Amino acid sequence: MAAKEAKLVTFAWEGKDKSGNKSKGKIESESIAFAKAQLRKQGIIPSKVTKQRASMFSSSGKKTTPLDIAVFTRQLATMMKAGVPMVQAFDIVAGGVEKDSLKKMIIDIKNDVSSGSNLAASLRKFPIFFDDLFCNLVHAGEQSGALETMLDRIATYKEKTEELKAKIKKAMTYPIAVIIVGIIVSAILLIKVVPQFESIFKGFGADLPAFTKFVITLSEYAQAYWFIALGVIVASGFLIRATHRKSEGFRDGVDKFSLKLPVIGQILHKAAIARFARTLATTFAAGVPLVNALESAAGASGNVIYRTAILQVKNGVSTGQSLQNATRMTGVFPNMAVQMIAIGEEAGSLDEMLDKVASFYENEVDNAVDSLTSLMEPFIMAVLGVLVGGLVIAMYLPIFKLGAVV
């Protein structure tokens, strides 16, 4: 049975380099003795080597995110384009990583490559972080002898994809935040503020306005059943999340409904077109056959409507249709995108035109999100004004009525 691999620990060191200059840094090793030996091999005479303790605010324990993979890909591409050997590039990239999970993965990939495995096969051992599209593109780069160029394209693709995801998340989060803030403010007023006024009104001995009675009744229900309402909201959130994860039909329904939402629906439409064009441009430029590239684009579209349409395009292209005719027949893609594809096909520069389509719609998403943010600011003020103002008016109506009688 193979020996268990020793756990690497981060050590902070101080010492002198070959020129006698003082220097310091960090190194990963199995022990202090091994760390000192590694430093001496690098021409450094260590004077102090200490184990680095993780800060409670450090990111070393956090999970690896898709953005981390995008940054890792960009760093690896930059190193290899600069002529740094792959194994050494992995060491350099791993040395600058703070997250333990990501660092361990990079070291595992490096060890696998060092033992003779190709990069694509090594990446396939981590399917959570490197999907089939990523691995297939790396494999194509290795087969063509242009791995550095391919990694650069993949890095650009990942960066653009994550940037687009962040914009969509921003667009979706803002309205939800408004609703949550409105609910919290209303709950605080109903549970804490309205009861104070209610006790004052009991001493009036006069009939209260209907609106005030309604708010007081609402406050009584909120005080009595707030924990039930909170439990229902939390349980509903978990149920929706679990159903979304397990039910494909539910996910498809959410996709269709989201495209019909005002303002946000248009952002999602443009984002899906941008993802389609970006994925197709990257895969087609890598030498992947158009039919296979369309299949990858369908998987990356992020919405069932566009996924179905792209698969329809793939079937059309498989039977001999041109890409422009196949996309036009779906009735999903805008005329501008179809025309750009037509120009690319006729000029023999389809990947370049698709790249321009992707950039155009990514900018459209960016502008739409900025516009949504500008529109939501007065909307937030209006919502909070109506909620808070309505409750305040309800509480002061009896006082106004009493003043009028006097």
TrEMBL record:
Residue ranges crossing the lipid bilayer per the database entry: 174-194, 224-242, 379-399
Example of a GO cellular component annotation carried by this entry: plasma membrane
Protein's organism: Motiliproteus coralliicola
PROSITE patterns membership: T2SP_F
Bilayer topology term: Multi-pass membrane protein
GO biological process per UniProt: protein secretion by the type II secretion system
Protein name: Type II secretion system F family protein
Record localization: Cell inner membrane
Entries under Pfam families matching the protein: T2SSF
Domain Type II secretion system protein GspF stretches: 72-195, 276-398
InterPro entries attached to this UniProt entry: GspF/PilC, T2SS_GspF/T4SS_PilC_CS, T2SS_GspF_dom, T2SS_GspF_sf
Similarity section: Belongs to the GSP F family.
